[in-house]
Write a structure and sequence with these properties.
three-stranded parallel beta sheet, Rossmann fold, alpha/beta
């Protein structure tokens, strides 16, 4: 939204069409309780654009339903990936499990949008049935203090670790060590972190309120508010080794076709259509 004014002016000056590529909205960031001024600027920018590219059908529906943008004005091109395996995740997972109990991972910014409180509620439900399971919250953000307090209130102090911000190498190792990764986002336009998880062979449980749920076929998909169902999915993966291994082997196949090169060609094709229309 900060660049829409400049984009509109540049398009008018050069007499060129304006394309807005939407990766997130104010509604995503605030769980649909927006700063009205920012929301109005976003809507104005969307209205001024000749074409909009959204990173998911989920985002497209938000633009149509909450910003009043005509559906025919919006094209969807999912995000891609260029993720490589710099480690042997199976070896790391096997070695980790020799000396550690099962581990469930959250990795993301500690903000309302990413659903860390939902992760803790899920963890509490799992803990009530499987007190041996450990939980790792990796990431930093303004909610860290209240999340630590919440975990204490839930009685998780002996089973949870707040790892703070981690490097890419550390994230890869955490994914490989984890028995499953949970992405409980309240509103996630895409969710590249889920692709990073499956690249390391980690079974994933992802919010239905996300774009990445449209492209990963072999995963558990749960409404972000249904923490009981989320916990049930975690317990199923911990109990059913054949299912977990099926998800480990099948989910990552999406990475072969969802490359940045392929997605960039789709964007380029849209630009060519716009220029010749």
């Amino acid at each position: 939204w900060m660049t829409y004014e400049a984009g509109v002016r540049a398009a008018r000056y050069h007499r060129k069409p304006l394309v807005a590529h939407i990766h997130a909205t104010e509604l995503d960031r605030t769980h649909f309780s927006p700063n009205q001024w920012i929301y109005d600027r976003e809507r104005w920018g969307f209205e001024q654009a000749d074409r909009i590219i959204a990173v998911s059908n989920y985002t497209k529906q938000i633009l149509v339903s909450h910003y009043g943008i005509p559906a025919e004005k919006i094209s969807v091109v999912h995000n891609g990936n260029n993720i490589t395996r710099d480690i042997d995740p199976e070896a790391i997972h096997s070695e980790y499990r020799k000396n550690h109990p099962p581990m469930v991972l959250f990795l993301g910014r500690l903000t309302l949008q990413k659903g860390p409180h939902q992760f803790l509620e899920m963890a509490s439900a799992v803990h009530g049935i499987r007190p041996d399971v450990e939980f790792v919250v990796a990431g930093d953000g303004g909610m860290l203090g209240e999340l630590i307090d919440h975990s204490l209130q839930l009685g998780l102090q002996n089973n949870i670790m707040f790892a703070g911000k981690v490097s890419n190498d550390e994230a890869q190792k955490l994914f490989a060590q984890a028995d499953c990764f949970v992405m409980p986002s309240l509103s996630e336009p895409f969710g590249l972190v889920a692709l990073e998880a499956i690249a390391q062979g980690t079974p994933v449980i992802i919010s239905k309120q996300s774009g990445v749920s449209e492209v990963i076929g072999h995963a558990f998909k749960v409404d972000f508010w249904d923490t009981a169902k989320m916990a049930d999915c975690v317990l199923t993966l911990l109990r059913e080794d054949p299912l977990a291994w099926q998800l480990r082997s099948e989910a990552s196949r999406v990475l072969d076709r969802l490359t940045w090169e392929h997605q960039a060609m789709a964007v380029r094709s849209l630009y060519q259509q716009i220029l010749h229309s």
